[in-house]
Amino acid sequence: MKTITIIKKSCLLFIITLMLSSCGATIVTCKRTDADIFVDGVCKGKGTVKIKRIGVPHKAQIIAQVNNTEIGSIKASRKFDAVTLLAGLCTYYSGFIWAWRYPSVIEVPVFETFATESIWLKPPSGNLK
Questions:
Q1: Crossing angle, helix 2-21 and helix 82-90, to 10 degrees?
Q2: 3-state secondary structure 38-70
Q3: Among 55, 50, 44, residue whose Cα is nearest residue 25
Q4: Distance (Å, whole) CA 44 – CA 31
Q5: C-alpha dihedral, 99 to 57 to 106 to 16, nearest 10°
Q6: Is the dihedral angle over the CA atoms 30, 36, 39, 41 positive or is it negative?
Q7: Burial tier of 15 (Cβ tally within 10 Å: 0-12, 13-18, 19+)
Q8: Taking the model in full, what pTM does it have?
Q9: What is the rounded CA–CA span in Å between residue 75 and residue 46?
Q10: What would the pLDDT profile of 37-72 be if each residue is shown by its tens digit?
């Protein structure tokens, strides 16, 4: 009888550890470090930003802009995975609603014409007198 209780507690501890390790944030990056990153129309920062990883099923529109010009975009959606399954089974099935996850990293692809930074945005080099 004690071994069953120990096994149940060990499994519960493992599941909790697995769920907590996968919480946190999704990192959204863009090759252009000067790009403003918008998630569903809200500016989250420049170059690399973090967004909430776990939540209800959702498709996010992620756009990278430089000087109010869109240079890249991607749609990312939360997915049902093993953590969602475990959360659902451990939370009287409510986890099937709120434990969907984005990938850990999302790379915003940059349109080919905007792949490199403009030389006009860089400070002048050389010895100006």
A1: 130
A2: EECCEEEEECEEEEECEECCCEEEEEEEECCEE
A3: 50
A4: 16
A5: 0
A6: negative
A7: middle
A8: 0.74
A9: 18
A10: 999 999 999 999 999 999 999 999 999 999 999 999
